[in-house]
Amino acid sequence: MNERLTSEEITLEGHIIDSGILAQVWGTIMDLGGEFDLEEIRVGKHKAETSFARMKIFADNDEQLHRILNAVQDEGAVLLSRDDVHTASVTQNGVLPDEFYSTTHLPTQVRLGNQWIDVTGTEMDLVIVIDHAQARARMIPMANARVGDQVVVGHDGIRVLPPQRARARELFAFMGSEISSEKPKRLVIEEIAKTMRATRAQGGKILVVAGPAIVHSGAGQYLAQIIRAGYVQVLFGGNAIAAHDVEAALLGTSLGVALHNGQPIEGGHRHHMVAINAIRKAGSLRAAVEQGVLREGVMYECIRHNVETVLAGSIRDDGPLPDVITDTQEAQRKMRAALPGVEMALMISTMLHSIATGNMLPASTKIVAVDINPAVVTKLADRGTFQALGLVTDAELFMRELAEALSV
Fold first, then answer.
1. What is the 3-state secondary structure (H, E, C) of the chain?
2. Using one digit for the tens of pLDDT, what is the confidence trace for 229-251?
3. Rounded to the nearest 10 degrees, how much is the dihedral formed by the CA atoms of 181, 187, 191, 192?
4. Has residue 165 got a pLDDT over 60?
5. Which of 190, 212, 224, 239 could form a disulfide with 317 if both were Cys (CB 3.0 to 4.6 A apart)?
6. Which domains can be identified in the chain, with CATH numbers?
7. pLDDT of 327-370, one tens digit each?
8. Residues 74, 171, 216, 291: is their CA dihedral positive or negative?
9. What DSSP state is assigned to residue 124?
10. What rounded mean pLDDT belongs to the chain?
């Protein structure tokens, strides 16, 4: 008999053995100082048959058990309790009740009236609000919580549906096993292009999260080609990608360095300011296109092809361009509003924007993360973005070969 003070029973169901989920849950329990007894297990005997496990988790105190349950629920464990989900009222705008449940980006269900219902608005690090009258559940950011909202608390009545690892090798798999600077990049990029074509053929949207290195490296022309060919429906970035793209279009430089020969230009340090000023004079990027001021480049193609563009500012921005959103919460709202329908995302040479976007995307979205620095690529995995492919390579090489693979 286990003499620890507190315990809880959980169940796991699905392809939990060949996917590694069962072993992962055991490891999590032990890593957090708990113990477990495996009380029942049924193993699927053919590919279509699922497996089932029931176990009791033991901990030294309620706080330790709470940490363990939080972790294993994220991995697909369900409390054996048949209780409905528990809620508590918000009593102050933007302030959550104690013991609120923090979401993952995996499909989630809650039990209401002894029935499991889907939670909408899947995203990590949000909370779940229940509409008891309509038997509905949705995820919202903490800042959007309003007095009277019924926020999910505790662990009962919550079910997270983890991805089941495919038996066959797939291009988009768990990112931690995919990051390498030694991949056969041409073959991988050809597979990415194939996935992009299939996504568009099925009506799915493709998002590009773009960093200024795309322009600095001379890859802006290839991104512009890909946009022109219809492979980008949404673009996220900051002031820098747009400002240096305009600099390249108007002055042929990026950061004052000539893109045709890589040589610094006398007085080039002010070129990005000249570019920003030209757009501010026109009134906006769209106005600059309509007035004939801006005639090429990434931003030009986005405007010409109605790509939904969100430029989120930062404290270091020069200018900024009039299109840049300087209120971070407003930028988050705009980004979330642009994401419905996005089935694939390319995150290229921009760590912070990529992390922010990865946090907003459900686990079902196919993600390609590209950066010359492997630490930037692994950062997405550290933040919990599972369905991603990491490529450690130069932005120009990646964009050039991708444009070639797409035949644009």
1. CCCCCEEEEEEEEECCCCCCHHHHHHHHHHHCCCEEEEEEEECCCCCCCCEEEEEEEEECCHHHHHHHHHHHHHCCCEECCCCCCEEEECCECCECCCCECCCCCCCEEEEECCEEEEEECCCCCCEEEEECCCCEEEEECHHHCCCCCEEEECCCCEEECCCCCCCCCCCCCEHHHCCECCCCHHHHHHHHHHHHHHHHHCCCEEEEEECCHHHHCCCHHHHHHHHHCCCCCEEEECHHHHHHHHHHHHHCEECCEECCCCCECCCHHHHHHHHHHHHHHHCCHHHHHHCCCCCCCHHHHHHHCCCEEEEECCCCCCCCCCCCECCHHHHHHHHHHHCCCEEEEEEECCHHHHHHHHHHCCCCCEEEEEECCHHHHHHHHHCCCCEEEEEECCHHHHHHHHHHHCCC
2. 999 999 999 999 999 999 999 99
3. 40
4. no
5. 239
6. 1-80 (3.30.70.2690), 82-168 (2.40.420.10), 175-405 (3.40.50.10690)
7. 999 999 999 999 999 999 999 999 999 999 999 999 889 999 99
8. negative
9. T
10. 89
